Amino acid sequence: MIDPNQFQVNDAWIAFQLNDGPIHTEADGDFNCLALLDVASCFILSMSNVPITQTEPSNAEVQQMLKDSYSHKRQLPKTLYIPSDQPADNLTFEAELKKVNVVRIPEDQLLLCIGDARESFKEYFLGGGSRWN
């Protein structure tokens, strides 16, 4: 289990899907929300809305997420954790290009870090449900 107390700020980030199921919108269709979170602080560094017709963010979207995340402390992490069942070829490629060690790990090993973020996202953005109008 990954524990935030084992890390310093910017040692490691986690890339994960914030929502449990697709978010439905009238105007833009269905999408998932991918986030980058700093492990030590559990601060969400950046997010990207990915249409469900895409399995993962494009290279351009990934580059923007990394750029936005970098801007907080002007550095990248040593390690990026990604749930092993989450499609992330583009993110893995871009992170490794920037010399970030990418570790695929079962999602249940990340829940201590990402659980509160998911619950807050569900409550704030979805009102506990799964439909935006």
What does this structure look like?
The protein is an alpha/beta fold and 133 residues long. The chain has one domain: Nucleotidyltransferase, domain 5, CATH 3.30.420.10. The chain contains three helices and six strands. Strands 1, 2, 3, 4, 5 and 6 form a six-stranded mixed beta sheet that branches. The longest helix is centred in the last third of the chain and has 16 residues, at 111-126. The protein is globular, with a radius of gyration of 14 Å. The N and C termini lie far apart (37 Å). Mean pLDDT is 91; it is low at 129-133.
Task: Please name the defining characteristics of this protein.
28% strand; 6 strands; globular; alpha/beta; six-stranded mixed beta sheet; Nucleotidyltransferase, domain 5; 30% helix
Layout of helices and strands, plus pairs?
Blueprint: E1 12-17, E2 23-25, E3 29-38, E4 44-51, H1 59-73, E5 79-83, H2 89-97, E6 101-105, H3 111-126
Parallel strand pairs: 1-5, 5-6
Antiparallel strand pairs: 1-3, 2-3, 3-4
Helix pairs in contact: 1-2
TL;DR of this structure?
It contains three helices and six strands. By secondary structure, it is an alpha/beta fold.
Structural class: alpha/beta
Query: For the residues shown, what is the average pLDDT?
Result: 91
Query: Can you count the beta strands?
Result: 6
Q: Proportion of β residues?
A: 25-35%
- The low-confidence runs, each spanning 5 or more residues with pLDDT under 50, are 129-133
Number of helices: 3
| Top-tier CATH class | Alpha Beta
Order of helices and strands: EEEEHEHEH
Shape: globular
Question: Gap between N and C termini, in Å?
Answer: 37 Å
Number of domains: 1
What percent of residues adopt helix (DSSP H or I)?
25-40%
CATH fold-level topology: Nucleotidyltransferase, domain 5
How many whole angstroms does the radius of gyration measure? 14 Å
> What is the CATH homologous superfamily assignment?
Ribonuclease H-like superfamily/Ribonuclease H
CATH architecture: 2-Layer Sandwich
